[in-house]
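Take a look at the protein record below and tell me what you see:
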Amino acid sequence: MRKTDTAAAVTSPVAQRDPKRWLILVVLCLSSLVLVIDNMVLTVAIPQISTDIGATSADLQWIIDSYILVFAGLLLTTGSLSDRFGRRLVMVIGLALFGAASVLAAYASTPDMLIAGRVVMGIGGALIMPSTLSILITVFDEQERPKAIAAWSAVAMIGMVGGPVMGGVLLNHFWWGSVFVLNVPIAIVAILAALALMPESKGPWTAPDLPGMALSIIGTTAAVWTIIDFPHSGIAGTWPGLVIAVLGMTAFVIRELKAEHPMVPIHLFGNKVFTGSSFSLVLVVFANAGLMLVLTQYLQFVLGYSPVKTAVAFTPMALAALVCQGVGAGLVQKAGVRPIAVAGLLVLAAGTAVLAVMAVDSEFWLPATGMALVGAGAGLAMPAAIGALMGAVPPEQAGVGSALNDTIQQTGGALGVAILGAILASTYTEAMPESAPDVIRENVTAAIASGNEVFVAAGREAFTSAMQTTFWAGGACVLVAAVVAFFLMRGVRSAAAEGIPAEQSEVDLIESR
């Protein structure tokens, strides 16, 4: 094909649209959904797992953290591999691994077996997640991409609310392993549909950056572990991990700047849109992760909701997010990325402020209003920010660009749980009476379980006070994200790459094959 013909084909979006693209989007959403549901239902199953296989507190921590560590540590590497070897191939391998590991986890008879299953599930998840967004970017053109990203993002909300509810139903009728068996049919359907419907896509072949891969795994894993362990061990117990993380990531950046074929295009951070989107996403996910942690405990320990009722109580947030993701996708095309991202962040900050004024005896309309505003704000802001971030990534590096997005969000979420969780814990302890036993002053669960009316009342009051402080801190982070988005996303009309002509990038990609 001549260059002029290639350019004409590429620059005609309608001619290039895959007629199966919306079915492909369903497959991508299914692939993402299996990851979200698995993480949400596990929290519901933890008590039964502890009882049935004799898992200690340390075992339970590893059951949860082993997945996060492997998943976060491998994202950049798997994203790079998907660009080189094929995004559909990598996603299908990931789905197969995730499904097989789910069976191992479901029938585990010891904590070690379950931890091993979770490790392999983390590997599978790291192969799946970057591939889904990178395939989406290559299948949908700039006109339809905002709607596709909004639908893909909506999966997280569906899984967040539906996962615990589904987990509660399964646990009421079956054993705890059923929450893992649930993954298997979803993975099988996604694999078959991917092979039948999805075209393969990849970037130009370059030799894998093995030193870069090794350094990214070491640095990212050490950083995530340090963040997770800091609330428990403090700086005295986590400084070796922090040192390894800093040295590993510094060496990784130096390596990528000097490598002939770098795994991660570090120069992207010189693009103000990419940088602004990245920092905005970190701050939003930071605030939302802490919000979910605190709200779940408030609804159960202060308002007395059951786990299933707590999950259902998040419906206003999920519905608002789903509606606003659809509306926001259309508005981005008309108004541009920056206005929608900033507006969404301001709405999200307003929702956090509403949640910050909740009291011990608040009726449900108040948290419902706050959660609806949070969902609406996130529904507007996050797809716009993700679209802007991915639009700044050259098409041939869509896999590693998607992995950067996932890594950014994972890091933000881990930081949110660690830092806002630490604020919550310390403020709670300070608000509790000094006469209370240490275990009750350190843990609201112990205060509620004590049965002592004085300690129960004090625990609820102290937790509510700590929650208010935590929400104000999270809201401040969202406002900072709005300022960052306002100044760094200036002039961006859509999710198109800034300074990287999409047509020319695609022409070069096609001609390189």
The first helix runs from residue 3 to 10. The radius of gyration is 23 Å. The chain has 20 helices and no strands.
